[in-house]
């Protein structure tokens, strides 16, 4: 099982990783380490993949999955049992509580403070990103944005992410600088969007200047990553962050 470890100057107490397709027992279009229970894969295989990841990575406690809806709600993680929360971000201020988001082209963003006392993970597709999921995650962490580090995990790259003009208009209506993240597509009326650049702009506006990652493209690397845009029915990767005891 291979995963990506963020290359960022996080404190020693912070643990973080982003999975790839490598490992796991899923087959067919889900081949590899599919962690999504909502995509049509066999439930037993998904559970086996999740258990294998937890054991291999040494993730403490139970895994706290979200029902992601491309929104901006942030779930404060705890060990309390209950229904899967409907949210697109999670935060934790205690050791041993993993924040997890699943993606297959959308942008996973991991956050921690420089003191190593709080962490968060956000699922930032274009709707959540434009709607303010990063700003909501920063607010939920309860510390100064300047004290935060951010890491941008694997997402669809700027040469593959084609969007309509309404998407560009939505971002430009809030932040004129977002124009630099869009270039005209070969298809009339369409644009190629750089979701990494859009996230950096939103983070900078919120006061987060220490931003790392952003070098992968899920769409173009089918061996390592699931991609909904590329394949339609496919699996999901997970990006996780937690505080060590």
Automatic annotation (TrEMBL):
Keyword Hydrolase: yes
InterPro entries linked to this entry: Cu_polyphenol_OxRdtase, Cu_polyphenol_OxRdtase_sf, Cytotoxic_necrot_fac-like_cat
Pfam families given in the database record: Cu-oxidase_4
Catalytic activity: inosine + phosphate = alpha-D-ribose 1-phosphate + hypoxanthine; adenosine + H2O + H(+) = inosine + NH4(+); adenosine + phosphate = alpha-D-ribose 1-phosphate + adenine; S-methyl-5'-thioadenosine + phosphate = 5-(methylsulfanyl)-alpha-D-ribose 1-phosphate + adenine
Classification via CDD domains: YfiH
Family affiliation: Belongs to the purine nucleoside phosphorylase YfiH/LACC1 family.
Protein name per the record: Purine nucleoside phosphorylase
Organism for this UniProt entry: Aeromonas encheleia
Upper classification of the organism: Bacteria, Pseudomonadati, Pseudomonadota, Gammaproteobacteria, Aeromonadales
Gene: pgeF
């Amino acid at each position: 099982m291979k995963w990506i470890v963020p290359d960022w100057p996080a404190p020693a107490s912070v643990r973080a990783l982003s999975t790839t397709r490598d490992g796991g027992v899923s087959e067919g279009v889900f081949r590899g380490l599919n962690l999504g229970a909502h995509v049509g894969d066999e439930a037993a295989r998904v559970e086996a993949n999740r258990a294998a990841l937890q054991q291999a990575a040494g993730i403490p406690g139970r895994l706290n999955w979200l029902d992601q809806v491309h929104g901006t709600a942030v779930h404060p993680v705890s060990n309390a049992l209950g229904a899967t929360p409907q949210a697109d971000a999670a935060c934790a201020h205690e050791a041993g509580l993993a924040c997890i988001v699943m993606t297959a082209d959308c942008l996973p963003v991991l956050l921690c403070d420089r003191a190593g006392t709080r962490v968060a993970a956000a699922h930032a597709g274009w709707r959540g990103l434009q709607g303010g999921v990063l700003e909501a995650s920063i607010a939920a962490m309860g510390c100064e944005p300047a004290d935060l580090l951010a890491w941008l995990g694997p997402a669809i790259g700027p040469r593959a992410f084609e969007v309509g003009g309404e998407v560009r208009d939505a971002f430009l209506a809030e932040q004129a600088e977002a124009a630099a993240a869009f270039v005209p597509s070969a298809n009339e009326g369409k644009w190629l969007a750089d979701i990494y650049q859009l996230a950096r702009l939103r983070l900078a506006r919120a006061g987060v200047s220490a931003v790392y990652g952003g070098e992968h493209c899920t769409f173009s690397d089918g061996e390592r990553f699931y991609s909904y845009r590329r394949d339609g029915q496919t699996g999901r990767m997970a990006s996780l962050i937690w505080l060590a005891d």
